[in-house]
Here is the input.
Amino acid sequence: MAEIYDAVIIGGGHNGLTCAAYLARAGRKVLVLERRHILGGAAVSEQIYPGFTYTVCSYVVSLLRPEIIRDLELPRHGLQILPLDSSFVPMENGDHLALWSDPATTRAELQRHSKRDADAYPEFNQMMYKMGFAVKPILGMVPPNPLSPGVDDVRRLVELGRHAKGLDARTFQQLTKLMTMSATDFLDEWFECDVLKALTAINGIIGTMLGPRSPGTAYVMLHHFMGELDGAFTVWGFQKGGTGAVSNAIAGAARQHGAVLRCNAPVAQVIVRNGQAVGVALENGEEIHARTVVSGLDPRQTFLKLLDSRQLPSEFETAINNFKYRGSSGKVNLALDGLPTFPSMPDRALLQGMIEICPSVDFVERAYDDAKYGEFSRRPFLDVLIPSTIDPTLAPPGKHVMSIFVQYAPYKLNGGWNAQQRDAFGDAVVNTLEEFAPGIKKLILHRQVLSPWDLEQDFGLAEGNIFHGELTLDQIFFLRPTAGWAKFRTPIRNYYQCGSGTHPGGGITGGPGRLAAMEILRSGK
Amino acid sequence: MPRPTPFYSRTAALCESHSWQEWSGFLSANMYELHHLREYYAIRTAAALIDISPLYKYLVHGPDALKLLNRVMTRDIARCAVGQVLYTPWCDERGSIIDDGTVTQLAPGRYRVTAADPSLRWFQDNATGLQVQVEDISDSLAALALQGPLAGEILQQLAGPAIAQLKYFRHAAAVIAGMKVSVTRTGYTGDLGYELWADPADAERLWDALMAAGQPRLLRAAGQLALDMVRIEAGLLLVAVDFISSKKTVFDVQKSTPYELGLGWTVMLDKGNFVGRAALAAERERGAAWATVGLDVQWESLEQIYKRYGMPIHLPETAWSNAVPVFSDDIQIGRATSGTWSPLLKKYVVLARIQPQYAKPGTRVSMEATVEAQRHMTEARVTALPFYNPPHKRA
Here is the structure.
């Protein structure tokens, strides 16, 4: 008789690992199956080029839930998040905008651009902080189902109502605006300085197929303001060793609690008998039996690839088919022979923070225009980080690695993605960077280009969407992935979902993994 | 007016914050940038350079040097071989701690002693009848701590592998950029680290050589604020904060013994007579009145208190050092002497002195926490020290 696991988890991404760690911690016998040779999913660090460690896909950490850090004792397993405390935007006229962790320095810099905005900026941050504080309880909550509420749903809805009642009228008004407006419209109410608006608005577009002037992006901006490190909100950090080290820390916790983690074990199918999941079949034919099967993959793979579609109610299947991915971004990783020079950079210390190629709102909106009609941006928005300036162990002394998140690169590219298109896309990125950092091309020792198509092929992200589905208002909370199925359950008994396609969504939060584990444990599995 | 240390021209140039404090009569940087966190992370994840020149340094030599040291120190200095370093406290006749420091046997019968407070008279007074010289060499030695996981790589580049591979608490003479430097594998951070002792005339060149070699590994100067956080993580006590030197107070209630401070392992009662031995032997017999422990302040508990005010949790960004009461149920069982949020461990860590019956790791206690000027009790768990003890510290 083969071993029967309490839970087998498909996908060793950070949420699958988190779910495994929580289940194992509760005494369950858990097995994680990862298709690749390495754990972490989209949170992996790999030496693609010898001596240089790339944080291949995801690159910063901010939303990782503090309760997960504590419950799983992640610092003991290697979690070390270093603060990123500046943002630098080179402008097309040779000027720049720099925001520092020190408010006085930031204020002096903003005054150069606009005395009004220098006053408005701390107030704006305070308002967003307040909004984040107002919305945050939702992140740690299993979404109630308002459509056909059960006892627990009613309890949670009352809880939410009470929380909302505690918000003052102004907060409520701002919240409504955030839920409906575009990032740019919302920011127009606060600032006059265009580059400051561009820099703030990018938080609203990352991971979506929307431009800074598209309605709904204001809310996404808030999602990125809910980050929390050490009790301080909106703080971004870089994990020592790259985001793969976050995955490894969670994996370490899972192993310590007895979970078995297997790599090179691609799952072909979930075995369903009498409407009930009983295990999985691997691509090599091996069958593994389990009382519960949990998928950390995105909804498309969870339901449409791993299951025979006849097993799903047709209405549900339609809803999953309609779930929007629309991957809009790519990633370029560079090995550099030395540090680049940005002529507009006033202080080299800014190389240790975020470098944003978003010189104006128009620049970003134009980049989106290309994508709307099926082209990658000729001059894309770039979210650049040089991790080796923060963690010197990532590259040989004096050499560097650069992580470039690129938007826009539509999944549905005219003519489709191929090697030539990928190279052309990589060239567009490097050429755009060269405009602002002349000479960087000569420093490039190695270049890794990941188009949305590559993200789907290599990392299993449907349509290359980094969040397992867009984080737009119609696809969050009790609607993620679809109404009635936001509580990590599925129409198949004993089959659960724990990926970023469930609440609270994408980013390295661990939230879906933890909440799914809690639901599984609550149902006595 | 505090004096500059031999590294002042370099530290002053870097000290953008203009934030200094007085340390044994010298100017010592609190933080170099406007925020200390990068310096903290440098110590824990890369490497940092800390000017520790204000430490008091003594040279003890002569035929009876060992006799003197073994008379004064609680540890058995006979076990300190040439090239070895020992950490040790020293006490008064009643077993109350005066100070602590390191003893290094530089050459046969030649020892260097470091101290936080002036100790010349104490050492000399205890040398009556002995053939030994005690010299204050504080001003003739500039001192730097090179600390952090990458400290070894930086030192290897400058001084060669033999120095970088120096074992924990060992000493060696090195040559760095043509300068003679005495190197000990010691520090006050609980991390991999070295302390470099050099001629003040070489100080600036030594600083420059280290900074140049360390630059690719993100070596940066670190000040007192960062140091104070890491020493709490490492469970290292600070004189005048976590305990008071028996020379600095006339009130018994303010004095402490090594046993009370968790330093019982440094008291070698069987090594022969030494200052304070009889009192310490009696204390060991009856048991210490206090135990020094770590407290892990429970996030959820503190968060609940802030929630009552409609506020998110607030955590101390720098180490605090104003003692607060610690309770078990409603009975006060001791005091917390210093604490900090540990960004690395993601824990609120505190050093405390409590009644020994509560010292078992895991014991639930509560600590006073003031929120919006109102007193509350936050839950904490007793923890063994140190909080942070990476393998590379001793490797």
Observations:
- Residues 115-135 of chain A form the longest helix (21 residues).
- Chain A has three domains: 4-82+240-324+462-522, 121-234, 329-407+414-450.
- Chain A has 17 helices and 20 strands.
- The CA atoms of residues 129 and 232 of chain A lie 10 Å apart.
